[in-house]
Amino acid sequence: MTGTLYGVGVGPGDPSLMSVRAVDLVRGADVVAYHCARHGRSNARAIVAQYLGTQVEEQLTYPVTTESTDDYQGALDAFYAEAAARLAAHLDAGRDVVVIAEGDPFFYGSYMHLHKRLADRYPTEVVPGVTSVAAAAAALGRPLVERDEVLTVLPGTLPSDELAARLADTDAAAVMKLGRTFTNVRAALATAGRLDEAHYVERASTEAQRTAALADVEPGSVPYFSVAVVPSRVHADTTPAAREETAAAMAGHAGEVVVVGLGPGARDRLTPEASAALAAAEDVVGYTTYTARVPVNPRQRVHASDNKVESERAAFALDLARGGRRVAVVSSGDPGVFAMASAVVEVAAADYPDVPVRVVPGVSAAQAVAARVGAPLGHDYAMISLSDRLKPWDVVERRLAAVADADMAIAMYNPASRSRTWQVEAARDLLLKYRDPGTPVVVGRDVDGPEESVRVVRLADLVPGEVDMRTLLIIGASTSRWPAPGTVYTPRRYG
Q1: What is the pLDDT of residues 432-462, one digit of tens each?
Q2: Are the beta carbons of 396 and 422 closer than 8 angstroms?
Q3: Helices 340-351 + 310-322 axis angle, to 10
Q4: Which residue from 83, 35, 86 is spatially nearest to 59, judged by alpha carbons?
């Protein structure tokens, strides 16, 4: 008859936050195991010290913690294997083993590494505990999330740019494992535009507990057992004090318009700067299809409109900003490429010179389509819109002919729509006067969307009826190469 393995969460530090079940198991255990660094001190053991008596204690000492080593993961794998073998010896002898874990055993806890090595061989029970994140929120007296908000928990060990992107893309966050990572975490919060919202909690629930505005914390004073918290924005915006503060601030609040590039479609193509701009906005303005791509935020107002009212949309956004609102005008791809940046800047220059306007770039549709097949835009190229809604067709023809004669690759936007069905054929026939019929043409449709298709055809074989408004065409130059199906590149060297 083997013993039972228990993974027991003992909470964030205050022994009175242990569950009754956790206390009973520690008191009745044959063996109590805990992890510690080489100095031998264990926060988990300190929490349960008053419940220890005649139990056998197994101190599981990490071979490395934060110091560098040639094979960090290898050293830890060997350590967990050896620790599991030590505990297995007790279990095989019929002794119950309680592995205590600060916080919760399955929340960034070391117990999980023993669990995965032993749970398939021995009876096992996991007892949850109060996490440091929950204790930190309690220490701050601030809800983590409210209503439909999303909480993201992140390790501070992530690269700063990834942290920034994730922080900008969530409603509320907790960042664990600070200590030596604190400087990078603070930089990520600043990049994401969330530093002013961030709080710092050290050793939550203990006598050494400390809270502060994270921006005011000295990096050299930060221990590993601390948490960065960006709490609920809904709560912050809906308390009586917050409403009074907002009303007072709005009296002298300087609004602005930020034109934000959302990229071609996929969420991971949104830049950290764009995420931060969206997170900071009080109003989101844009074409209905594009505003739908912005995550719902209950504190923001969304103003969606038709695709053919760019100037009106720009004026509306600038009016909001003149009234003190922070406004994000959203565009697909890059806002400076046949999109809203030009409209906003033009209207602002004429009628709103007092309103600040910023443009946040994004990954363009041309870049996204080109990347799918290699490097068709690897040398000089031109971007041309086939739409004749804002310029006459004879201008489009002259520009197409000039670029074709100059022998550059062409990224062709807005090739067709429901009301414009003949331009693709006209453009193809014009280009065939300058280009070989076998010139590769990349036909990218709904790139990054649910109906994405990318294929390469000969210029002579381009079928106009298969091209719509969601399609972008890349026509190669005479130097462009098509070495394999689905691969096109234009060499940087000419001749």
Answers
A1: 999 999 999 999 999 988 899 999 999 999 9
A2: no
A3: 60
A4: 35
